[in-house]
Design brief:
Mean pLDDT: 91
Strand content: 5-15%
Largest sheet: 3 strands, antiparallel
Order of helices and strands: EEEHHHHH
Shape: globular
Radius of gyration: 17 Å
Number of strands: 3
Distance between the termini: 28 Å
Structural class: mainly alpha
Number of helices: 5
Low-confidence stretches: none
Helix content: 55-70%
Strand order of the largest sheet: 1-2-3
Length: 153
């Protein structure tokens, strides 16, 4: 069986991505420790595809947040909003990216707490749910495609 490539690998708090600029000649992975690295990976096209761009943006900030402490919910929200706005500049026409940014902002803005760590954790969990949903969608597409290929239709 051939080795399985994963475009995005997330093991909290570590994000690595398959450098799509190196394909097909090599399967090179790049660590994305923060939003700045996520921005670069998206803008330089090291990661491609609308859903992947959104997930890399979300998880790059999750990786960054994992090592941060926030005294208040306001400081956590301010940092997250600033970084999400910055990530949006990485690919200004990416619809999936802006949809993810909107959902992530809504999730933290509607979290009722004064605790900055709760806001941070809410963000990280939401980003992880986005990855899980994307993987589930991709698996379903593969299963449906396999059924069609195997059928007489």
């Amino acid at each position: 069986m051939a080795a399985r490539l994963q475009a995005i690998k997330w093991e909290r708090p570590r994000l690595t991505i398959l450098n799509q600029l190196a394909l097909p000649h090599s399967s090179e992975y790049i660590e994305i420790p923060d939003a700045r690295a996520g921005h670069y990976a998206i803008s330089s096209m090291q990661t491609r595809g609308a859903p992947a761009i959104a997930i890399v943006a979300a998880l790059s900030l999750a990786a960054e947040l994992s090592s941060m402490h926030f005294d208040t919910s306001a400081s956590a929200r301010a940092h997250i909003h600033t970084q999400l706005d910055y990530l949006g500049t990485s690919r200004p026409t990416a619809v999936n990216l802006f949809d993810a940014i909107s959902k992530l902002k809504h999730a933290i803005d509607t979290t009722i707490t004064k605790n900055g760590q709760v806001v941070r954790d809410t963000y990280v969990q939401m980003a992880e749910r986005m990855l899980d949903a994307d993987v589930k969608d991709n698996m379903a597409i593969g299963e449906h495609g396999a059924q069609l290929i195997g059928s007489d239709k």
